[in-house]
Amino acid sequence: MARLADYFVLVAFGPHPRGSAEGQGQILQRFPEKDWEDNPFPQGIELFCQPSGWQLCPERNPPTFFVAVLTDINSERHYCACLTFWEPVEPTQEGLCTEDTAEREEEAGEGGPVGLSTAAPGPPGQLFAPKTLVLVSRLDHAEVFRNSLGLIYTIHVEGLNVGLENVVGNLLTCIIPLAGGSQRTISLGAGDRQVIQTPLTDSLPISRCSVALLFRQLGITNVLSLFCAALTEHKVLFLSRSYQRLSDACRGLLALLFPLRYSFTYVPILPAQLLEVLSTPTPFIIGVNAAFQAEAQELLDVIVADLDGGTVTVPECVHIPPLPEPLQSQTHSILSMVLDPELELADLAFPPPTTSTSSLKMQDKELRAVFLRLFAQLLQGYRWCLHMVRIHPEPVIRFHKAAFLGQRGLVEDDFLMKVLEGMAFAGFVSERGVPYRPTDLFDELVAHEVARMRADDSHPQRVLRHVKELAEQLYKNENPYPAVAMHKVQRPGEASHLRRAPRPFPRLDEGMVQWIVDQATAKMQGAPPAVKAEKKTTVPSGPPMTAILERSSGLHGNSARRLEVVRNCISYVFEGKMLEAKKLLPAVLRALKGRAARRCLAQELHLHVQQNRAVLDHQQFDFVVRMMNCCLQDCTSLDEHGIAAALLPLVTAFCRKLSPGVTQFAYSCVQEHVVWSTPQFWEAMFYGDVQTHIRALYLEPAEDRDPSQVCGDSLGPRDGAGLALAHVRPLGQVGEALTQEDERSALDVASEQRRLWPTLSREKQQELVQKEESTVFSQAIHYASRMSYLLLPLDSSKSRLLRERAGLGDLESASNSLVTNSMAGSVAESYDTESGFEDAETCDVPGAVVRFINRFVDKVCTESGVTSDHLKGLHVMVPDIVQMHIETLEAVQRESKRLPPIQKPKLLRPRLLPGEECVLDGLRVYLLPDGREEGAGGSRGGPALLPAEGAVFLTTYRVIFTGMPTDPLVGEQVVVRSFPVAALTKEERINIQTPSDQYLPDGLQLRSCTFQLLKMVFDEEVGSDSAELFRKQLHKLRYPPDIRGTFALTLGSAHTPGRPPRATKDKGPSFRTLSRNLMKNAKRTIGRQYVTRKKYSPPSWEHRGQPPPGDQEDEISVSEELEPSTLTPSLALKPSDRMTMSSLVERACCRDYQRLGLGTLSSSLSRAKSEPFRISPVNRMYAICRSYPGLLIVPQSVQDNALQRVSRCYRQNRFPVVCWRSGRSKAVLLRSGGLHGKGVVGLFKAQNAPSPGQSQADSSSLEQEKYLQAVVSSMPRYADASGRNTLSGFSSAHMGSHVPSPRARVTTLSNPMAALASRRTAPRGKWGSVRAGGRSGGLSTDVGTRLAGMGPPQANGAPADPGFLRPQRAALYIIGDKAQLKGVRPDPLQQWELVPIEVFETRQVKGSFKKLLKACVPGYPATEPGSASFLCSLEDSEWLIQIHKLLQVSVLVVELLDSGSSVLVSLEDGWDITTQVVSLVQLLSDPFYRTLEGFRLLVEKEWLSFGHRFSHRGAHTLAGQSSGFTPVFLQFLDCVHQVHLQFPMEFEFSPFYLKFLGYHHASHRFRTFLLDSDYERIELGLLYEEKGERRGQAACRSVWEYVERLSKRTPVFYNYLYAPEDAEVLRPYSNVSNLKVWDFYTEETLAEGPPYDWELAQGPPEPPEEERPDGGAPQSRRRVVWPCYDNCPRAQPDAISQLLEELQRLETELGRPPERWKDAWDRVKAAQRLEGRQDERGTPSSLLVSSVPHHRRSLGVYLQEGPVGSTLSLSLDSDQSSGSSASGSRQAARRSTSTLYSQFQTAESENRSYEGTLYKKGAFMKPWKARWFVLDKTKHQLRYYDHRVDTECKGFIDLAEVEAVAPGTPTLGAPKTVDEKAFFDDVPSAQQWVDQIQSCLSDA
After folding, report:
1. C-alpha to C-alpha distance for 183 and 170, rounded to whole angstroms
2. Contact call for residues 637 and 676 (beta carbons, < 8 A)
3. CA atoms within 13 A on the CB side of 1805
4. At residue 469, what are phi and psi to the nearest 5 degrees?
5. 3-state helix, strand, coil in the chain (%, to 5)
6. Looking at residues 1260-1266, what average pLDDT do you find?
7. Is the pLDDT of residue 362 over 80?
């Protein structure tokens, strides 16, 4: 029972003491005047009566009522009901107030919810003062308070004949019950009657309609935000103009938080004078009048809810964590169903007539029911995570937060984490954790309804039904008696406040009121207390926890199999089957990533512990420790899955004997885990163990004997912790099958004990308390020793080292994220830092551990109620425990050092090249996976080769890793990864956890431009000094100070001291001599006639220094006669003679110029007139342009002296020179640097006849114009009006025309004749695909916009029809940079035209290449599986876009040249993109450059002689280090590779050749690609090599020489598909969709490293299977070929290579000298050509079926060796696609008919037009065989079978492929030169076959 009201107070307006304009409240009277003993009078009531301040009003306002809430120091809430009315001010008061006040009050408009409209003005100048009646109570009966105060006011206003003292006295003496659902009628003695209903249970909050109103005002989302904000302890501020609404909103929010109680500042109505409370740092829920909104906006961390506006404002700096999904969305949808039931029916075609909406009160309960359900779902199973630490004298309960989060699967959830850490939840645990207490609705819900809620989740209607049921119970709790008697309370009349009151509110008689109160108190004391005994019960625990959302673990789906593996491995370990265990270990370590497997491991290990000990041998110990470490490394500091908890007893149980008396326990090897240094983990473990022992204390003696529960020796090393957290059963603890007695949980035991407690005698109670206390105390001692085990490192110096290396965080914050060797270092750190000084040398590890343990002991013992004496005793014991343990450890450490070290794999030494020397011997490292799937097993399958353990070697040429995979399942594979030192592009340090779980911080990541990545960590045996030395040496080798330091230049030289880089003294004479000899040699070269296109192999000009020491012969030397050399064999050469050798480098250019018919030297006047161009020696001294070659092609008419002036107009003096001439159109290709601005303006603004002034002003640009005019006039005349000079009919076949060119390999079925016609008009050349039909030629304004990617797009990137350039074709097109030619308007009368294009800069190439490197070799495993991430990063790199632009520009130039116009490429400085474009144009236009010899010539001429800056772009020396690697040449090779893919039959060299050059242009193995120009090479003496030594013995200095030697041995650089068409111009497609990523970037062979150093490659693969002589099955010599490991082309050679190898092997067996592969191949090809010819002399007794050569022009078909080992010679082009070649339109048309028939699969037997036996030649080296041939005229096929009766066709010849059938000479046996022939015994049958086939052909 309790008083309805504690105090009645009358507060009135009083003047402010300091004379301020505002008044203040004064308490006129309060009853009773003495404070109640149990409830003192709350201070500051007068502030809360008028929260906006005490002010006078010019009008009489209607009375207002609201309830304010005050909280006292004991957290008790006092409800202050305030009824305010206004009375006229007495004159004394009035004088104190100024007019100013009155005005301000009018503006403020204070007056509560009723507006000023109802207020009535008094007489002029009359002011009104507020007066407030206040009722203070601890009960929340707002309506009763309103009625009671209203009654008192009514009596006063209406002047009723009732004594106010009686009414007040009765009010203060009214006693009502607190709860229990009783009903009480009260009367205050004024003829009134009120009924008070008490709630059924006190614990459920009373909300009336407040929750429903809150949702109406703010909406669902906003209320959910406020709900989460209040739970996660944020500051919430409500704003409204109505005080009543503020208190309702706050009340509603608190009601939603049930069952949690809000324990922070709670002020529903905050007075204006106390607004500074809002800046408090603690959370709060506060309501403030909306008038003070401005003050609220200044607060940065307060969530403001505006009730009137319906908004919630969350500041930017505040993050409110949402509810975990799916609860968030479920709650939202249920709330909308409750608030807006019509939402579900809104879309129905026939909605029900009306839906009954709940009343506001009922809706309020429904909304609360939703949140009650939400809490039941959130906290489901919370009782399973309670730890009963003490039962008597008062329960002490702790909550195992980590276990709860782990079980619910919400470890990552921000919301629940914050809720569990909050004050409200702590209160919830201490209040609701008690096992024996009264229960309420929430307890039943969380215990019994969980399954129902889970089942209902997917059925909204069932959820709604449940919500309504709960709402009913909540409603019943508030209104237990529905048929309640009506209140009867007098109210004042309408507008009574407007009537002038008869008098001010009277002063009451204190004596009388006090007398009434005293009377009632005396009466109460006599009466017996009517207290209902609370019904206490054992609180049900409910079902065990389940995860809130069943997340499928994905990776560990097949967990049963994994658990089986774990169990097997452990049983093998303990049975001593170490080999078996070793095989399973990798799988186990992988499985241990899953939770189930870790639990299984703990359970299995428990089974092997007897008597708290398990002594193992060394190997077993290593296995067990490794598995434990693997388990623990994924444990967070919280250990939410209880893994560390389960392993804790085990690490003190497993041990090994090191020597007599010295035992090492497992804990000394598992200390490096963050969990051991987390105080929360130790607390949870401690409380769990205490609970187990307290429970055992109270179980019956019979149960007491259970050994798994209680251990006799309470201080033993494992102390009964086998079932740590026995109550938290779902944590995967060990005793899964608990016995019957065990099923009573600790909470059940505690509940029983609490029930019996009052019945026990005092002594018994005392005894139990002592027993419990000593249990806690003994556990504290036990844990002190346990903690010292895991915190003291085996070697204390090691922790100091670790601590110095990494600044470890403060331990108390429990955020120790670094894996430390032990936690001790970090504790010491925190202490030293706190004390303000830090001494790293004397790190006091023991002291730090002692402090950590003491802090732990303090906390848990204080919480568990251990007496202070015991606590002091513990503090004394802890240092002793630690000291004893340190002494034990010293012996263990000493002995453990004597153990034989673990056998590490033997270091494998790499194979080195001749001349390559080791700089640093092997440093032991781990090579880690780098993101390429191949090495790590990956999606392609194959073994997990990485991580590998081995060593890294640094040589003068390469960085090499050799080692073995760490995964023993892979087998004895050797992993090699290497790259040239010169290719290193980035080196960075990394810190990684290694595969063997050791923390090795020293790591390096080396990235190379040859697409290799070494990501490695040094083994612990490698000191940091060695690692640093490795880095320094690597840096020194990568960036030598001078180019002479590179490998190519140091190789083989006897370390001659390098001469200074640039000799200045004798430069003049040497260059003069050079120029003379240069001229002589060039003339001699050109004088020779260029007869046939034979292989050109220039003599080696790159031999220098001594041969390698000793008799070391190059592995690629070939035994042959040396080619006759023009050089004189003399060792000592005079400087002048040496200069004559310059011709050797010039020969490349000169020889090519001669081949192209490009001119003579100016001195030979006889030919000068006829030749349009000449070779000018003007640059022989490299005086005009240092980066150009000595001899240049210029127009005949231009004199040498003019060239000097022309060169000034161009960047780097690179003036336009001719580099190629088309043999057919005679158009020339010129190259130059970009124009200087000045020259451009002069050139293009001037007219044909410039004024004298202009020419004087700018003579050089005039020279430039003359020069270009000379170029134009040197070309064939354009005057003839043939169709070739205009572009209107240009290139009709592949642009804008619907008739495809036959060269494009398109077969049209509709109109074969059109194809014939088109052949006459189409230009020569071909496109790289067959999709040419139906293209439309786009018309654009200028070619530049199309090239910049802005013009109309063309299919496949074919260039648009250049017909739009101008109607009359220009003689010369100048392709220049758009930016450089801006604003220049070419004159239409000029004969040249500008083509401005946008090109990328070299820095963009560099940036793009870096991204390409990262895309192809990421350096870290991909986040998303599959190729998506690779393709994204490839696209981001924009590499293929740059390739596309290069090809696009090149194809444009090719078109222009082919149509007869000359082109000058003048981009950037003329040595990067210009070189790329010019080289590509020549390659596409001239088949010669597509041969091995021609490509070499092209690179020598355009890249080396014309000065591409290889050293600068490749950052070859220290000076270039900052500029970085820019792969301009590699980009060119990529373009060539793209063309090669589209035209595989046009290139003599194989794709491997391009990769080889790509690798070695950066490797520095050869001197070819060093330095930036011929000038620099001459200066360094690289172009003149001493001769006299045998070529075979010296190491190759030139990459070309190496290629030549290697080509003689192996066809690796040769392309078997090479079958060129003469004068074929290639036009590749360039769209990105047509481009492929070059496999040079992605492929890797880990078996031998990069395959480009041929000597280092392994021997040839094993020979293929051979048939046994008796005809049986071949003996299998199968071997597994792994695409990521083996070199596939070598492991599985193509058919032709295999046959050539076989041929050589057979010849060797026969004792003959083996024939060169090239000769054999040429003979075979020649024989094939012979077959096609008709032999007239022979008698027609046999038949030749010849066909188109089997080539597929668009895409090459590689012939793989079939299972029988033969390739069918008679199979023609069996590919039916239109992409296959058909030569000429007749075949195309014929072929089309056969493709028509191939759709119909009719029975073979029906289509036999003619049949018989013919002999057919087998595959290469196979005999002739008889076959049954069938001619099928319907399908146009010649099929053949093994026998006449066979139904299975062995093969067929498509007659569409057959050109002619001819009789040949009869041959006996196996003819030698005939491959594709069939022969007969008699002439007539042969003639018949010929006739039949001929008729079939003619039919087609």
Report:
1. 18
2. no
3. 4
4. -65, -45
5. 40, 15, 45
6. 77
7. yes
